[in-house]
Structure formats: structure tokens, C-alpha cells
Amino acid sequence: MRAAFGLVGILITLGVIIWIMAAPGGELQQAQTAINVQKQVTPQVNQIAGRSGSGDMRFNESAKFELQTAGGKPSNILVLEVDPAGPAAQYYGLVRGDTITEVGQLGPVRDSNTITSSDDAMVFVMDAYQHQQPITVIRDGQKVVLPQPGTPGAAGKNWVPSH
After folding, report:
1. Are residues 15 and 79 in the same domain?
2. Counting CB atoms within 10 angstroms of each CB, which of 27, 53, 68, 106 has the fewest?
């Protein structure tokens, strides 16, 4: 009989603890809110760090660029290779053969005295990615601003030429 009262007492205590934790504003709701916020923020934090949304690939591992020059000055950046699962393809929608003419706040590549090598080109494109800035490319003879407004992460799927 004592054992039954002891067991019932323990069960009631557990029930009260669970009820308090599950109540609105309780520990379980706070933990769920924290988990939801983390799911939303993690891709942004990864992008600021120069990684894919999932964090498994760095931007500079997802594409290869070549600085093209004319008359000894930079003219544009040619996209040589793109990993379709990487952030260059997932965020900007870059594809092999795209010619990047403008990069984020840097502006037109041809007006830049800062980009002097393909490594510099990678650094500036990666910086634009990290700061969620647009780039302008020439694709199939048409000027395209990437990512398409309002659709980061889906830039290359349904691109529309800019005017």
C-alpha cells in the first residue's frame, strides 16, 4: 500500500512538472521557439560566413572564375566551373560560361582597379555573396541581375533578362 502511494506521488509530481513545462510560455514552448529561430537564422549565418545554407560547402569551393582583361585592364569575370549543389549555383544560379560584368558594391568589373587576378575575382564575388549583394552577368547574350529579386536561392531556375 505504501509503495502504491509512493508511486502515485511520483506520477503526480511528474505530471505537474510536465504540465508546468508545457504550459504557454513554459520551458517546452521556449525551447521550440529557440529551435525554430535557429532553423531560420542558420542559413543566413552560414552565408555571412561564406558557406552554403547548410554549411557543408564554402563559396570558393563551389565555383572557379577567370579574370579576363582587355588592354591590361580587367574587363569581366568568366565562370569556368560551378558545382550545382554549391552556393554559387544555389544562391546566384551561376552556370558555366556566365560572364560577370558587375559585382556587388564594387560595380562594373571594367572600372575596377582592385581586381588584378582570378583570385581577386573570387574574393569579390564571394564578398558579394556574403553580403547578399547582386551580381550582373551576361548569359546567352542577355544581361541578367542575380539573384533575381525576391527569389534568393532560386536565381538560376527561372531567370528573366534585365532591361
Report:
1. no
2. 27
